[in-house]
Amino acid sequence: MGFRDMELFNQAMLGKQCWRILTVPDSLCARVLKGRYFPNCTFWDAPLPRSSSFTWRSLMYGKEILMKGILWRVGNGKTIRIIKDNWIQCTTTIKSVVHVSENLKVRSLIDEVAGRWNEDIVRSYFSEDDAEKILQIHYAILHVRTFHLGLTPNQEYIMLSVFRTNTG
Description:
Layout: H1 6-23, H2 28-37, H3 54-69, E1 70-72, E2 110-111, E3 116-117, H4 119-125, H5 128-135, E4 147-149, H6 159-167
Antiparallel strand pairs: 1-4, 2-3
Helix pairs in contact: 1-3, 1-6, 3-6, 4-5
């Protein structure tokens, strides 16, 4: 098949299983895993207990590669965390110039009455580069509250995208 890095290939295949849990949450597998490992949180926040099965540990390893390529679409901003979640294109980590709680949501940056970013808050919280990236996200995009692999336009998990994301 021509795969040069079998470890990355294996991680990508595990990532594909994670993608399926995320995109088909009503599947039997996803429901069983949710009931056992993350009944009170999202898959993204799911812990890795010491008593985890080999399957769950493997999925958490696959989740690592998925997190590198996932880009959240903001929607109403109620569930996306400003600091912890990847929601700004071409940015691996966002840096705030003031202390921002890890759990502060993107919603706090949106002027809901005007239907746009609250530019004063965005500029006061972030460096000039990060503020510009945030303000360039058009409000037309904000109507969707989903996630996708940053390199695939139609939310399909494509192995080639995973390899491109993780091999540079």
